[in-house]
Amino acid sequence: MGAEVKRVQGPMRSRRTFGRLVRRHWSTAVAYLVVILVCVFVLIPILAGFVTAFKPGPIQIASPPVWLFQPTADNFERVLIAKKGLLNLRNSIIVTVLSISVSLLVGVPAAYSLARLRMKGRQQLLGWIISLRMIPPVVVALPFFVLIDRMKLYDTYVGLSLTYLSFSIPMIIWIMRGYFARTPHLEESAMVDGCSRLQAVVRVLLPVVMPGLAATALLVAMVAWNEYMLALILTGRNTATLPIHAVTYVTRVRVEWGELFAMNLIIAAPVLLLAATLHRHLVRGLTFGMVE
Question: What is the DSSP track for 57-110?
């Protein structure tokens, strides 16, 4: 009797196991299909813009679109040379480098102090810092314009970089503070051996938190490189950045699609290259530093 029951239960168990495997794999296949469809939906416009940047003039707005053609770099030459986009590229590089440098010099020591040193009102100070990051740029655009104009810094690299510090420094403090808080107190061992706190932090702690520094520096660079609202208000012909120059290809009469997408590719390429180069540090720094 027991043997017959086992013979009956064996196929039933195998069928239940097979059913669970089918349901599990079916749900996984559906999830992958949804992800693939979303990626295709997002990537098709990006691919179309990339291809249009290399199209010659007559076929840029052809209907239906032309996908087989002889690629040309004329759009990039007109954007960078004929329409002086190299000056805007130089301006973007200078403003981004200034923003990153000053933000790290101010934000990293502040983040270390808030993570390691005990002080009154630390939580309130952290709340105020993160609230600065939540303010939309359009809200502070007019006050910044009045302040920068009165300081005689309109259409200067210093004036635009100072405005970017208002949201890049809080970002660095918030991310690096979480990173320092979860890192062991390695600098204390160096201080026992005779190093000052500054020497211990520079020589021992900073190499350990380098992934966090790389991640925060890349985020600050992306914000400063792509920012449009404040750059539109606080810059003129001398210091206009790449996003400001890109708008000039959209006029009331027509849109220069080839030159516009060429400029967009020039804007996106440095950020993508940096992200690809620092992707390990970026993922590790964000996942480790954002949660305390």
Answer: GGGTT-SSPP-S-----HHHHIIIIIT-HHHHHHHHHHHHHHHHHHHHHHHHHH
